[in-house]
């Protein structure tokens, strides 16, 4: 933005405000596209304790961990 305003300035501008207004409208690069929206945060399941081995694991309900679950 600074280079668009200060490059190749005339020695004695007749209308400095007009020069700045022109450069801000005509010489600035186009605006960036808006950022993509993120998906809403979903909190992880709470920690549960395995009923067989007392290991902590994440699950929506209490029960057994994957290692102790029947195959």
List keywords for this structure.
71 residues; alpha+beta; rod-shaped
Low-confidence stretches: none
Tell me the number of helical segments per DSSP (H or I, 4 or more residues long): 2
> Structural class per helix/strand content?
alpha+beta
Number of beta-strand segments: 2
Shape: rod-shaped
Query: What's the multimeric state?
Result: single chain
Radius of gyration: 31 Å
Largest sheet, in brief, is:
2 strands, antiparallel
Query: H/E order of the elements?
Result: HHEE
| Largest sheet strand order | 1-2
Output mean pLDDT. 86
* Beta strand %: 5-15%
**What separation lies between the terminal Cα atoms?**
64 Å
Helix content: 10-25%
Structure, described:
The chain has 71 residues and is α+β, with helices and mostly antiparallel strands. The protein is 23% helix and 8% strand. It has helices at 2-6, 16-26, and strands at residues 47-49, 56-58. The chain has a two-stranded antiparallel sheet with strand order 1-2. The longest helix has 11 residues, at 16-26. It is rod-shaped, with a radius of gyration of 31 Å. The termini are far apart. The model has no long low-confidence stretch (mean pLDDT 86).
């Amino acid at each position: 933005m600074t280079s668009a305003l200060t490059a190749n300035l005339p020695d004695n501008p007749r209308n400095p405000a007009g020069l700045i207004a022109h450069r801000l409208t005509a010489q600035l690069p186009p605006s960036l596209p808006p950022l993509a929206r993120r998906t809403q945060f979903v909190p992880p399941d709470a920690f549960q304790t395995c009923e067989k081995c007392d290991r902590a694991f994440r699950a929506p309900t209490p029960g057994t961990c994957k290692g102790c679950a029947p195959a």
